[in-house]
Amino acid sequence: MSAVSDDEIIKRKLLVEGESGNDDRRLTLLLKNYLRWVASDDVGDVGFETFQALIGSVNQCENAMEQSALVLSMNQEQLNQYSELFKKISQFVFIINLFALETDMENAKVRMDECKEELRTAKIIRKNRREYDSLAKIIAEHPERDVTLEKCQKLKSQLQRLQELDKEYDRKIALRKKQFHLFLFALNSLQKVIEEDESSSPVATEDPVTNLPDDASTEEGTRMDTN
């Protein structure tokens, strides 16, 4: 069996008796010595020494009592300090929780803004996809670019030919208008000559064509050349 060290013995005594074990033994020893001193009826030097020992034991007990009172007061003060510290810690924890709650609210607000932005972006993407699908359907209904360009080139050629033909028709119409105007002028001049001949002489021996004015003859010749 292994030997028990002094530290183990002191530790066991402290665990069994606690801090007040020595005080209890001191009071018990003081009471026994006091009863023994009272029962001895010794008034000599031995009795005086015993009395001084009892006074010393009483002083030790008083010191122990004062020490216990101081320890109790100190424990109470520490308890009060711990209570104040607990209140401060509780307030600090409350402030931290409040700050954390505000932070969570700010984060939630930021997240809501992000979700709104994502929703807006998703709506734009959805709208663009619909427009893309519509354009794709319209493009699918029309022929390819090469075919369209070829048709466009043919239409341009036809349009140019029609424009040239329209210009040619306009030129011919303008020429016919000039010829018709010249014909009317010649006809009017001829009618005047005939009327003058009829009014001047009942029997006309001159050739009507010969008696035409120079301008009328010239215009008539121009008309005949044009035809």
UniProtKB/TrEMBL annotation:
Residues that span the membrane, as ranges: none
Presence of the UniProt keyword NADP in the record: no
UniProt entry tagged with the keyword Nucleus: yes
Region spans: Disordered: 198-227
Location(s) in or outside the cell: Nucleus
Any one Gene Ontology BP term: mRNA processing
Signal peptide boundaries: none
Protein name (record): THO complex subunit 7
Organism annotation: Paragonimus westermani
